[in-house]
Amino acid sequence: RAVSPSNLNTDSAGAKPEQKRPKTQQGRPHRPRRLRKADADETVLDAIELLLRETWLNGRSATDCPGIPAAFGWSSGDQDAEAAYSRSPPIPAKLAGASEAECTFDVYVHEMTERGVSIAARETPEQLRELVSQGQRPWFFVVPFTLKGEQARIRSVRHEWGYTQSDLLEVTGKSPLRIEAPCAYFGRCSGCQLQHVGYNHQLEFKRQVVERAFAHANPLFGKLPVLSVSQSPLPYGYRTKLTPHFDLRKNTPIDNVPIGFNIAGQRRVLDIEDCMIGTDVVRRGFAQARKDAHAKMASYKRGATLLVRETNVPGEGVGTSVADTPAAELVKEYTLDPKSWVTDTVGDLKFRYPASSFFQNNASILPAFTGYVREELHKWSGQLAANDGSDGVLKTLIDAYCGSGLFGIACHQDFEKVLGIEISNESISCAGDNAKMNGATNTDFLLGDAARLFEKVDSDPSSTAVIIDPPRKGSNPDFLDQLITYGPRVIVYIACGVPAQARDINHMYSRGAISVDGHTATVDSKPTAVYRIAAIQPFDLFPQTYHVENIVTLVRED
Asked: First CA to last CA across the chain, in angstroms?
């Protein structure tokens, strides 16, 4: 049943929708869970808003609907009406005490979110368009492992602000894009979300994720072309690190503890004997880690997270140390010890770091990934030099959030000086050692906060490029404002969190520092530098999952 502003809190008989309250062991009912917008998945809310907007616009053109429906809660709508609607689910759910039969629904899948789950409703696309054009809003479900256009039978599990988390019971109407997933655990394991989609369609989905993230951050960004996603050489068998885990629960036999990854949508562990996205070496290590954990399970008081990581070591009779052995002559092994050191190779380069620390987990794509960054910097140095009549513009490279030195070392040959900064003392030590091991003598890695990076920079910004590769949450306004004030000639922004990246670039736009088709934001004081977005290039470092990396090149307009 659709919900409109006039019936937000009532059922067809005029009474408030009733939710059963599950009882505790003592027989007393739980207090109903209060739904809060802050607790909801922001990506789901964004997808619902986008779906409603597009459906309403299509319906308005057909029915000449005069204004935005109040229940939508947009800036020009009634946010109180949206809140009343979002807090009053008109359907039962398992965790609200309903029976299995009451929680089973047939739904139509209308859209996939950037996290690979889908937005569904009981209405067909035609019914949805008719309801929305009349100012009504149906209740939505979030359903995993489904595709746009499919029909499915689901179990409603947990209410959230404006939608209900659900389990997939059966796909009753399949999309022509659906394929048979090769992994026996797919559909139950939370690790992969897209094995039921062919790889080329995964790449297009991820390109659209980037496109939508930028359009959502700023409608002007929706005009920007997003290049085709650079694919992983290995769609399976690519992952060089896995972290299976287990929990020790009451009444679970010690010889039957599941070791693996979480069940999709739950906090319970699914027992997994093999993981297809791991490299061959990591899969061997995975089996050994499970065997070792089961053998000493009685010694654990609580659960634990295990580490399986690929490393490269000198082959027999080849060399005595990683530093003395060419990258091509190293052989792959695994480690299960978080305190050990591992070595990754990227082309001819070698990088050593503690097994428990961060490094990109798809070695097969790293030569192309780092190579693209280097090529972008080299290309723009030459093009800008041609405009200036010089041999090459970019002389200094600043690598913010440098970690163990991956990008700074990979690009060092094209610069007179490379300066890296990182807040982790351990990472800075690794970066210095890696630079020495790879002969990158023109590099200098400093301990410090990226937000105060430019206090230590004395190079001319007109001959400087900056690489930023922040955590998934993105950068921060203070750093971005300093970056704008410093005004390097070229900025390469690498992101594992694309929405945060789009938000950060929109922050620069709000400061007047980004130009899109000649449009800049109106600001009180003119910024030091104004940039155009020269390229948006996604990379697929994590096939079969919703994750996508993205590289944006910003070039200063002079």
From this structure: 57
Q: How large is the greatest C-alpha to C-alpha distance in the chain, in angstroms?
A: 83
Instruction: Supply 92's token pair.
Output: 């039962």
Site of tokens 């989905």: 205
Using DSSP's 3-state secondary structure scheme, residue 534 falls into strand
User: In 277-318, which ranges are E strands?
Assistant: 304-305, 308-314
What pLDDT, in 10s, does the model give residues 401-438? 899 999 999 999 999 999 998 888 899 999 999 999 99
How far is 491 from 487, CA to CA, in rounded Å?
Answer: 9
Q: What is the pLDDT of residues 496-528, one digit of tens each?
A: 999 999 999 999 999 999 999 989 998 988 898
Q: Which residues pair with 137 in a beta bridge?
A: 3
Residues 6+ apart with CB under 8 A from 558: none
Cα 430 to chain centroid distance, Å, stands at 26
3 band by pLDDT with thresholds 50, 70 and 90: very low
496 labelled catalytic: yes
pLDDT at 283 over 70: yes
Distance CA 30, CA 23 (A): 6
Burial of residue 102 (number of CB atoms within 10 Å: 0-12, 13-18, 19+) = middle
Split at pLDDT 50, 70, 90, the class of 30 is very low
For residue 18, is pLDDT > 50?
A: no
**Assigned token pair, 244:** 């299976």
Query: What secondary structure letter does DSSP report for 356?
Result: T
With beta carbons less than 8 A apart as the criterion, state whether 2 and 66 touch. Answer: no
Catalytic one among 160, 333, 496, 557?
A: 496
Length of the chain: 558
Please say whether the dihedral angle defined by the alpha carbons of residues 365, 368, 373 and 374, taken in this order, is positive or negative. positive
C-alpha closest to that of 53 among 75, 36, 83, 84: 75
- Contact 149/168 with Cβ under 8 angstroms? no
Contacts 24+ apart (CB under 8 A), 97-101: 97/19, 97/20, 97/21, 97/22, 97/23, 98/19, 98/20, 98/156, 100/155
**Whole-structure pTM value:** 0.88
- The backbone torsions φ and ψ at residue 154, rounded to the nearest 5 degrees and listed phi first, read -130, 165
